[in-house]
Amino acid sequence: MGEEDTSTSTVGRWLSQRDILAGEDSEWEQFYRRHRNIVPHLTGSIDQFRQTMHQAKMRAQQHGRPVVHGLDVRDYTAISATDVEVPLRVYKSLSPKADGAVMIYFHGGGWAMGDLDGEDNICRLLCIESSLHIVSVDYRLAPENPYPAAILDSITALHWVSDNDRTHGFDGDKIYVGGTSAGANLMVKAVVLRHLSPEIGIPIQGQLLRSPVLCSSDVHHHKMGLKSMDRYVDTPILNRQSMEQFFHWYQPGNPEHPTVSPLLSTELDRTPPSFLLICGHDPLRDEALAYADELERCRVPLRVAVYPGMPHAFWIFPELSTTKAATQDLIDGVRWLLAHSRRTS
Q: What is the pLDDT of residue 190?
């Protein structure tokens, strides 16, 4: 496990570290042997997928003392230009240090699972620890609503935040975006939105990506030497088979389009400051490492935290020491994003 700030120095290509990341983590291996029955293995129908992950996430939500002080939490609904309703949950920081900075947050779940409750604790924690307003988005899910419904909902949420800045105390010049896995893919980030809707014109100051989906093209996996998708075919929580099922439900069409595979964008030099969390035993590992390399090449301010031997989204198990470390990394990384944009504004 480690973390490096590469905004002012070059650390070499992140992809070259994958052999180190592929090593085993003894704590995780012991935990998995003892608690295999509570570690998600996604199989079956969409309802079975959703039930399995919902149980795991809600178990995580019930662990520890809830964060209830120092913030105000309310639900709202954004309405798109085509009258689609997008539920939102706003976590408003009550800290005197809050300066209107706001992060639009997208939960994980392979574009097919998840809701506002599954990552409620992390939104509360970031709100409190970073004096940051959070707007969590309950985007439409596949297969009922395939591509690009979720991306369109992310655009609706972005407009809602921008249009309601005075009502909710947001600073329209301090908008950030963040997400986990497929949620991170939805807005990676200003780049993706620019390709789909160039007229948006809302500046994004930084992005938080936790185990992001960044390249869905098998052809480019081969061309770029990305091997983790083929290596992790039976790992818990997420593996190649479950990713293939998610893509089947999501129906993204052209896998090389930048809204599907942001790693292949030709405009990565316009990416805002970025903080990535990358898991060592994750089929998505190599595309995240390659993305970090590309951001470095483009001289995008970058911070990366890596977790050798850990599966995708291992942090749904709060009892792991690596989860505690990753939680602190997350807080520190978001604070870095906020501080970096303030220094350069």
A: 46
Q: Does the residue 89 lie in any domain?
A: yes
* 181 is annotated as an active-site residue: yes
Q: Determine whether 99 is an active site residue.
A: no
For 175, the domain range is 24-339
Domain count, the chain: 1
Tens-digit pLDDT profile for residues 61-81: 888 677 889 999 999 999 999
pLDDT at residue number 196? 52
312 is catalytic: yes
In a domain, 18, yes or no: no
Catalytic residue among 181, 216, 228, 341, which?
181
Single out the catalytic residue among 312, 329, 340, 341: 312
Model pLDDT for residues 285-344, shown as the tens digit of each residue: 999 999 999 999 999 999 999 999 999 999 999 999 999 999 999 999 999 999 987 666
Q: Which residues of 162-193 are buried (b: 16+ CB within 10 A; e: fewer)?
A: bebbeebebeeebbbbbbbbbbbbbbbbbbbb
Q: Pick the catalytic residue from 25, 138, 282, 329.
A: 282
Q: Is 126 domain-assigned? A: yes
What is the CATH classification number for the domain harbouring 32?
3.40.50.1820
